[in-house]
Amino acid sequence: MIMSMSFYRTGTVECRSAEGSKKGFKDKNGAFNHYRNSTVEEIETRADEIGKLIDADANADIDALNIELDGLKAAKDNIEQRSAAKGKLSGFNPITGRKFDENDKGPVEDIFGSKEYRGAFYKKMLNLPMNTEETAVFERAQNQARVERRADFISTGNSAAVIPTQTLSEVVKKAATQGGILPYVRQFRIPANLSVPVATPEEAASWHAEGAAVTPTIGTPTSVSFAAYELIKVFSMSVASNAMSIQAFESYLSTELARTVMAAINSAAFSGTGEGQAEGILTGITWNTNNSKTFADAGLTYEDMLGIAGLLKRGYAQGAVFALNNTTLFNRVMAVKDLDGRPMFTNPIDGGTGYILGKPVVVDDFIPDDTVLFGNFSYYGINMPQDILLEVSRESSFKQGLIDYRAMAVADGKPIVPEAFTKLTVTA
Hints:
single chain, 428 residues, alpha+beta, 3 domains, 11 helices
């Protein structure tokens, strides 16, 4: 009969105990402590034994053996570090079907979010000298970017690098504080062309009586996938202004990207064609009498606003907002009064723009004049699968005494659930 076995040590002789095997190791650290004084040969012998045990015993405790294998690997790594060995662990893990060193290196550091990379990035962009550590971390980041195929032009002769995570966060934050609809949409960071299910109000859970049979409901799940469209912005700085501090340059960069790249995404969220760019709400939804109304050019009325609010399907009103541009707000909405003669638009109590029919108002200048959208904008999705890449060229505008920077983002956007939106426009 084949039994699961573990080792105990008597001098240099390895003995096997069935009783110890039944107990097993509680965790990886326990296994590591057991084997850390073993030799490399003993560790690899035990790994081979585990492989044979799994092949022969259908009832083997896979979880326990995997813990032991993790401890074996940690012990082997420790031995090699102590002996200053350069080779890698070559033992085979029979559970995963991989070598110990293959995809078993623990969580990978977010190198683009490290302060070391942030410092190296800005020194590279400003042509400042980097120390040995900064050079090493920058090269590691470049290699990772190539592996992840973050951008194809990273191999050009110009200096190119992924914008640090902290700076990208500042870009998004600044874009949000500038107003507009971006803070209300759903943002993804998923690979392009990957279909992702999205829950809708119709897919809520239902109450169930204990012991009663469950009748499954068959419906068509809502899902979304995004393409990968490039956004490019080129801006220039004089050689003299390029001598600014790292902090000043980071502030300038985040402001510039928020003003341009994020603004382009914001604009496409409403009017994008879906061809080579994101698909917008106004252009990507089929508008008809079921989800839209018109108002007379002579003036917007209270009934008009009630009309589009009433068109929004049940379940989407929670979290819904009115979205319009500043011109429409002041020239159309501000003059509307309810049936009691009170202004329909009310000023905010706790910040924000204000309220219409008790719902928040979002002012976005990328919405056309005389257009009011009402809906739950979390059902519009924007996807940025890669971080923004920044490239610097000191040759392209040499004669003008300028340094050119090129930012490239990959993004897409589209309405996830069209029925989450209604529209009011002036009569054509």
